[in-house]
What does this fold into?
Amino acid sequence: MKPTLHTLKPTGKLLLLGIMLSGSVATWAQTTISGRVVDDKGKGVAGASVYIDSSLDGATADTAGVFKFTTTETGFKTIVASDLGHENGGLPLDIKNNSSITDLTIKLRTEKTHKLNEVTITAGSFDASNDKDKTVLKPLDIVTTAGTQADVVKSMETLPGTQKQGAENGLFVRGGDASEAAILVDGMVVQNAFFSGPPGVTTRSRFGAFQYKGVSFSSGGYSARYGQALSSVLELNSLDLADKSTVNLGINMAGVYASGTKLWKNSSLDIGANYNNLSPFYGIANTNFKFYDVPVGGGGNLRYAWKPNKDGILKITANGSYISSGIAMPNPQSPDSSLNYATKNTDIFSDISYRQMFKNKFSLYTAASYSYDYNDNSWGGYPYKETDQRAQYRIEGKWYATSRFSLLAGTEMQHYSIQRNAFLPSTYGVDSGYTKMDQSFTETQTAGFLEADYTPVYWLAIRPGIRYEHSALLNQSGFAPRMSLAIKTGDNSQVSLAYGLFYQDADNNTLLWGYRPDFQQAVHYIANWQLNKNDRTLRIEGYYKTYNDLVREAVTNGPYDANPYHSLAGLDINNSGYGYATGAELFWRDKKSIKNFDYWISYSYIDTRRLYKNYVSEVTPDFIANHNLSLVAKYFIDKWQTNVSATYSYASGRPSYYPTSGATTPEWSSTTTPDYNNLALTISYLHTFGRWFTVFYLGIDNITNAHNVFGYRYYTDPGNNTVQYRSPVVPPLYRSIFFGVNMSLTQFAKDEL
Amino acid sequence: MKGFILLISAIAFAVATCTAQDFKSTLKKTFDEFENTQDQAQKTQLSNKLGLIAKKWNNEWTAHYYYAFSQAVLSYNEKDKTKADAYVDEAEKEFDDMKSIQGKENDETYVLAAMIANARLAVNPSNRWQKYGKIFSEDLQKAKELNPDNPRIYYLQGVSKFHTPKMFGGGKKNSLPYFEKAEPLFAKESSDDIAKPYWGKNENQYFLAQCKGDDKE
It folds into this structure.
């Protein structure tokens, strides 16, 4: 050792110096040391490094953990064994000249918390992220899933807990309807997540999968950070700084789009524009409705990201779009006639957020958003206008007290108003007079939340939380406790549990009609078991939910009204509704067994009943199929640079309710729709032309042209209530074909050479 | 007495240079052996030895540099993902030690940083290319700004392109220009001084030969 040389004194140490010097010329007397390195279970640790501390003398253990080496060191020393994935082990040794030390056994303990094997809370949630390794789905998986049309929200229907949809927008999660699932971007509520369209026609969500670095779908028991959703939240997290400067161009059967990205040293800007015209899409298919005006529109988006320092990021987003369409749809009040439904929609979503980490100890996140949505619609020639505005603000701080404990505290405010100006005819299509409706409400919700993440031991993670919510409109407050935990049950498996209480206002329609019922309430209990090993995931989840204080139209006289757009005027609307949902779900994904082949299976069984809205008794809601199954398979053919993806979806029949013939009181009867089947296929061909990375894609949805029915609409002859007509609720088209091209510039600079 | 002290100082100096020599030659010998063997077990053993050298001569940045490098190389060849990641963890740790000794970064440290990022990416490419691909190209860009004649910049870019699927603009044909660019720069380097990294020359030749064949995929 070098430093010892400086401490040499001229007297008395000459002998030592002599020995040191002779070391470089003469051979030292040597000692042979041998033995074995073993782990906790007594198994040999191959490749472990065994050495005398502070020397170069050592060896590497062979496949049986056996080592042998010679050393020139003498005296009291330490022999050390080290190996990745194990804690270092050592033994004291008294090394004597020209002796040999044999049969040493050095025990190494397995390192407890390894990066890839941390315990994570998974009850009720599916995470798709670019940043984390251990996620069930990645954003790219969403885009390449057949039958989802690269729609983030639609792709959630291939996960357990969701209902297959074809005639209504939104996520129907575990017994809840679409209004009970919230969609959030960077923690901000998206009020109008889908493009506007006529009722009964599904439209795309407004999100492109590549705008987000992560998607987190919770089918229940979600964090105290969020509220006002009885069943579920879908969280989208936008990208940070762009990866590189690029240009992206595309054309498909729904329109054309172009975007440009400029990356500076610490900031980036994206600007994009699109023009949509669905003539080609609807043009080649047989539509079930007549589009007298095919959807035509356009939009623009802007995104700016700035990193003022290494641990901070500011993001500003603005999206605007306009779309118009006209459709002749079945008249809900008259079976043989149709109504013209025209929509002209303007939508703006803007958002600014800032995240800063302070010395890895404290993080601050704050965001504000304003959104505006205006529907200038007409229904059967009568104007039907709706304006939504929402301003929201959120601030949260997280304190990382230790690597095992962190505490999050935050507050949010939602201020929104909805205004409806419409004419409500007593009978559509018949000039029989109308009622003019000018309805509006303004709601201000404030909330505060506290959540802790605690990992007392490596195999246990606990996340307790509490949320306070206040509604100014309803003049009501509530505390919602949340709790989730995960227990590691093996190297690759764990059990997660979650519990939570959730509040939500009555739906917008009820509030627009002037009713102010109390919060509705849901309680979730979730348990899951997950095995995750080598790109294979098995997950089994069970849950039980209760619903209390659901908003109900307690109608006592007159027949049951099957028209979903019926007037709420003069009804007794209260919180006497209730219900439950229980179910079991299975998810299996395997990316490993066959090269380039990835498939997953999700199956959900649900048993749920509720009494709410204008229901007559506690029944399974008409949007529920007891069995939902998705089989997703993707295969990449290297040779052809082609990705083939197929999705088969199945759902059992759903109930549909109608007034009992001839009844004068709210009595109803029920029937069931046929089973739902859909086989979808997407083929993408990838190629780089010069500096343009190009993807050609062709998607066919419902290849077999199955005539899926999502329910029935009933109409009772006003003159004779024993005469009923029914029409099936069907999607705008059965089989559909979609193709397009996307091109992006791989690099701006001419070359890196 | 004065003479004695002088003698002692002279001997002490000789010993000091001798240990410095020892360090450099031990490091060079071990590293060259590491580079020249293709046997994984031997590579592991030699990397372990580099680790001992880095522990013994804890204040020498080169010791940490080569140990970090060898751990990154082991990671590339490791099939077990958890273990491969652990190698990269170790490489990153050693890299940080090296940086704290060295203070200021030079082109070689950026090249090594890029290589470690690439090793991290290689453990799980489909999940990590976005994050680590960016770090990789940024670090190489910084190295290039400091010394555009460092052949390892182009060699690493070439390897990365080589392993990128053809449809994403990679493959043999697209990576060839990088290896060709590196070749004459490697030729100018000498492998005498361990403090001036010279790794990559043989591998570059290997890839050049590979690229001159046809793309099979």
Observations:
- Helices of chain A lie at 2-6, 14-22, 139-143, 152-155, 279-283, 508-512.
